[in-house]
Amino acid sequence: MYTLLSGLYKHLVQKDDYFLLILGLDNAGKSTYLEAAKTKFKKDYKSLNASKITTTVGLNIGQVDVSGIRINFWDLGGQEDLQSLWDKYYAECHAVIYVVDSADRERMDESKEVFDRVIGSEHLIGVPLFYTCGPDGVHEGIDWLVECVKRNAANRPPKDADFS
Ligand SMILES: Nc1nc2c(ncn2[C@@H]2O[C@H](COP(=O)(O)OP(=O)(O)OP(=O)(O)O)[C@@H](O)[C@H]2O)c(=O)[nH]1
Ligand SMILES: [Mg+2]
Prior knowledge:
Layout: H1 2-13, E1 16-23, H2 30-41, E2 59-66, E3 69-76, H3 80-83, E4 95-99, H4 108-119, E5 129-132, H5 138-151
Parallel strand pairs: 1-3, 1-4, 4-5
Antiparallel strand pairs: 2-3
């Protein structure tokens, strides 16, 4: 009986956990993108003032609940010496968001090179990838990714859900 009830409880309240990696050059707007996503999808979230967002050195984590699943964002630092840490997250992530600063024409080639390296990784084969030029349209972007990761769940199943 306990098993039955706990199974039902889990079914009703647990959310599947998916992990989305946010990559791109330093200063591309990754942390700003994450902030925009939290502002859009978290009720009553007080967004940080843009001037409060500083360069990411470690890992910046964000969590939002969308369409019955939990999205965990991993926003990594984009500085050149930090890029070597990105691939540690590839095997565990369910999708990649690659952020490009479309106003920064001078660094377009550099961004393209880094992008090519990312998509060339064997650990990302079959993983949905979203390429964006900033926080405009964050709502549509995340909605699209949510559908993608759900559809791709047979390849990359969600992590064990927690309760909340
Ligand atoms: N005008 C404008 N400024 C932006 C936009 N996105 C980011 N910025 C500014 O660009 C700067 C860098 O943004 P971040 O979000 O910290 O960039 P990041 O990609 O996280 O950088 P790293 O953490 O160093 O890898 C900040 O001063 C932001 O306010 C945007 O869409 N429009
Ligand atoms: Mg950042």
